[in-house]
Every structure is written in structure tokens, then in C-alpha cells.
């Protein structure tokens, strides 16, 4: 029997975008399987947003190609629009419309019933703000409305550019649950984020970008394991032990009766990120 064919939702080959002397995206290749949740991490100016805009068909690459659901994204492909959902880093709404009118407008573009659009306001916690004009919403509320508008037509592939940047911790966790549910239902999700815990909690695989290139692309666990970072053991009295043999060290502490209040921290995705991109501030 022939092996099942692996279908990729996104295929990117040698994408490049330059602005003068700056290579914002430098020969990036990327494959994302159907139903996969991928996180893209990187410092400011790493090229994350530019890469996403080219994959979405919003920006013409200088070279290379991208396809989504087997269809080329450029020239702008009208056949793809009902099948993808896009939440941009900067929200843009029709002026003087209420939140309900806003999402109803988006729903109408896709032939989606108003009742279904109202359900999305409920799902992102904006039912009580349905009658408020978009200019009167807080930054976090506007962000949630933008996400609801991107998802109102139940797209097959979802692109989210820093979706939780303006959200409070509770709204952020609620959005995690929402995105996990969408992904569990078979949707492909690609998001950029600055939050390492977000990428670890949500993404099947993580791409770390810097200077327009993808440096690594793997599962969070594999990236941490590859780093081979030492384990930090913090004792109740504040003493910190750094070791590459945590099992041996914990056994020793048990023999000494010093396990109460012990905290053990292995390497994290943040350690991987800093190891690859450095610790200097980026403008």
C-alpha cells in the first residue's frame, strides 16, 4: 500500500525582501503541515512581520515563492481569501462603527450569518461592548475584535501577528484556549510572538528568526534539548546549584534532608532564544 501523502498547508521557497541595503527577509524556506501550530519568534526587526505579509499575499517578494493550501499567494489570489484569516499587527477598522457593526461587516464580506458573527463577539469576551464604537474600545478590546474579525469566517489557515501584545494576562490566557481549540479542530495556525511561554504552550514547532533568516525550526522540546543548558536547583535558603547531573544532585540533597522548598529549572525556550540572538537591546 502506498504511503499517505503528506500535505503541507504552507510552502515557502527562498523568499527574499530587501529595503535598500537591508535584507529584511533573506532567502527563507518554510514548510507547515496541515493542522500544525507554528510560532515565529525573533527580536524587533528580525523580519517576522515582513515574512508573514509575503506568505499572506499582502506583499510581493523580491524573489522566491509562497503557496498556501496548494495555491500561489502572489499575484494576490482571490481564491484564497475565503480560506485564510489574517490578523495584522496594527488593527484598522471602519470609522464610527460599533463593534457589532464592524464584525457584521466582515461577516457579510464572506457570506457569514450575523448570528454567527455575534457568537464570535461572545467568544472573545466583547458581547458587553457590542454597542461601543471601535474608537472607544481599549487597546486590548480592539485587539480582541481584530482577532474575531479574522476568524469570523472559520478560515482553514490563520495568520496572527503578535495577537496578545495588548492583552491583559486573563484575556491572553483566554485567547490561548481559543486558538488551541481552533487548532484542535484541524485549522493551521501561524503566529508571531515575543512571549516565549506563549510559543512553548501553543506551538507544535517554533521558528526563531534573526537578521531576516530562520536560524532554527523545531519543536520547543527539541530546541531546548539541543541547547544542552545546565539545570538550576534553588534551595529554600536561596542557595543556587548549577549542574548538568540534576538526578545525582537531587539524590545528594535528599540524603542531606534538604529537599523541602527545592525548585528545579531546566533550560527554557528563552535560553534558546538568547543563545541564538544575543542579549543586546534591539531598537
UniProtKB/TrEMBL annotation:
This protein's name: ABC transporter ATP-binding protein
Pfam families for the chain: ABC_tran
Localization (cell): Cell membrane
Primary localization: membrane
TM spans (from-to): none
Top-rank taxon, per record: Bacteria
Keywords: Antibiotic resistance, ATP-binding, Nucleotide-binding, Transport
ABC transporter domain residues: 10-236
InterPro entries: AAA+_ATPase (IPR003593), ABC_transporter-like_ATP-bd (IPR003439), ABC_transporter-like_CS (IPR017871), ABC_transporter_ATP-binding (IPR050763), P-loop_NTPase (IPR027417)
Amino acid at each position: 500500500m502506498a504511503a499517505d501523502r503528506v500535505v503541507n498547508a504552507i510552502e515557502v521557497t527562498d523568499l527574499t525582501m530587501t529595503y535598500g541595503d537591508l535584507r529584511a527577509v533573506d532567502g527563507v524556506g518554510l514548510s507547515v503541515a496541515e493542522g500544525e501550530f507554528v510560532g515565529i519568534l525573533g527580536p524587533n526587526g528580525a523580519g517576522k512581520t515582513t515574512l508573514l505579509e509575503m506568505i499572506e499575499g499582502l506583499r510581493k517578494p523580491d524573489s522566491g515563492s509562497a503557496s498556501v493550501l496548494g495555491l500561489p499567494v502572489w499575484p494576490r489570489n482571490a481564491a484564497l481569501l475565503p480560506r485564510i484569516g489574517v490578523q495584522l499587527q496594527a488593527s484598522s477598522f471602519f470609522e464610527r462603527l460599533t463593534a457589532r457593526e464592524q464584525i457584521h461587516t466582515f461577516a457579510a464580506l464572506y457570506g457569514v450569518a450575523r448570528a454567527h458573527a455575534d457568537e464570535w463577539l461572545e467568544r472573545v469576551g466583547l458581547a458587553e461592548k457590542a454597542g461601543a464604537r471601535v474608537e472607544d474600545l481599549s487597546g486590548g478590546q480592539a485587539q480582541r475584535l481584530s482577532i474575531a474579525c479574522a476568524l469570523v469566517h472559520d478560515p482553514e489557515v490563520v495568520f496572527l501577528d503578535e495577537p496578545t501584545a495588548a492583552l491583559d494576562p486573563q484575556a491572553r490566557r483566554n485567547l490561548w484556549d481559543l486558538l488551541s481549540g481552533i487548532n484542535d479542530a484541524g485549522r493551521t495556525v501561524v503566529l508571531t510572538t515575543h512571549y516565549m511561554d506563549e510559543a512553548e504552550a501553543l506551538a507544535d514547532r517554533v521558528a526563531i528568526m534573526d537578521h531576516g533568516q530562520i536560524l532554527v525550526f523545531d519543536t520547543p522540546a527539541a530546541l531546548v534539548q539541543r541547547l544542552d543548558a545546565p539545570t538550576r536547583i534553588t534551595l529554600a535558603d536561596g542557595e543556587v546549584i548549577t549542574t548538568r547531573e540534576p538526578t545525582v544532585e537531587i539524590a545528594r540533597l535528599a540524603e542531606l534532608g534538604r529537599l523541602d522548598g527545592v525548585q528545579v529549572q531546566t533550560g527554557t525556550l528563552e535560553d534558546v532564544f538568547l543563545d541564538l540572538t544575543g542579549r543586546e537591546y534591539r531598537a
